[in-house]
Amino acid sequence: MLKDLFKNIKDGRVFCGLEYSEYAGDEKFYGVQLIRRKNSLEELKSFEVPEMEDLGEQLKKQQALFLVINTSQVITKSVGRTKVADLAVVNKAFPNLNMEDFYYEVSEVCGSTLVSICRKPYVDEILEKLEAKGFAIIGCSLALHQLRQVEEFLPKDKIHLSNTEIVREEDGLTIHKTDTVEVPYNVNGIKTASLYLLSLSAALMHFFRNTAGFSNLEEQNASFQENFYQKRFFRLFSRALMVLLLIVLLINFFAFNHYYQKVEQLKQTSEINTSNKEKLMELNALIARKEKLVEDVLSSSASRSSMYLDEISAEIPETLLFTEIDYQPLKKKIKKDKEILLNPGVIDIYGQSTNSDNFSLWIEHLESLDWVLRVDVEDYGFQAANTSFFKIKVRIADE
């Protein structure tokens, strides 16, 4: 699993093969994209475009691809079966060839050794144009050599490609250019057509990296791969770094926002507490002042009430008996959550009298007191033999 993950990171999940083909002056590009899903490769899509400028409609920028050049500029010979694929085979197929001017490739395909050559400026120009279009070249091959990736799944007699027919014979291969013949093939479960057989082989080369053969393109292909991996690593690392930076910034933002809200709440709480503290101090001061005022009033009231009671009872005749004295009586009965209302400047006196004359004289005495405004006899009535009950209201002059 880790191996698959590493390969996905290193190479990606999409593998592309591209054939640059030509027949009778008509150039075309055939492409196949394979995608890796779990443990299998599936064809993502195949396409055909007439010009290099149209590749951008089919492939994304920075798409890695393995290129096969299969045009009239590439010359291929079959030299039968050889034990080794080396420079001697190239010299045998193309005597007096200036190796500095040509790219060459030697490999065994379908039981026969193939040798292909192409001028370096031609190949380099194609590669430079593709790179200028934004595509990442992962490797390059000439003519038919990548067919070795799929040859075990191909017919034993004839093989059709986009511009070539290969006839398999006992003494080797017969290769000749031909017009397009579309023949279906099944390569290990991947269904394709003859037009895309070479580009499919290139895509498989992209995936498997099966480089059996001999070519002076190998060094350049290694450079292509190294350049691709460096750019891909830099691109992935940059994205990962940006994502990580974004995550850190988001965490910092949410953390800052969280603590900022907490600080604001604490500030508001502190301001409320300060305000409440000030109000509480003001209230305490007000209560203290009122308590002192109440104490002073109560002290004064207690002093006056004592004086009033002393003077009321000082001249009371023996024929009178007080049953209740109410200083500042209630105006109304006390009710829950209602204000208690007193009747200031009033003393209610309840009692019994056995002599009405003495009662009248006592009333006159009360009215003569300096602090008495007037005395109202609110009730006086017979209660029992020689006994009457009374209620008087003494109104105080200075309250």
Automatic annotation (TrEMBL):
UniProtKB keywords: Membrane, Transmembrane, Transmembrane helix
Keyword Transmembrane in annotation: yes
Recorded superkingdom: Bacteria
Residues that span the membrane, as ranges: 240-260
Protein name per its UniProtKB record: General secretion pathway protein
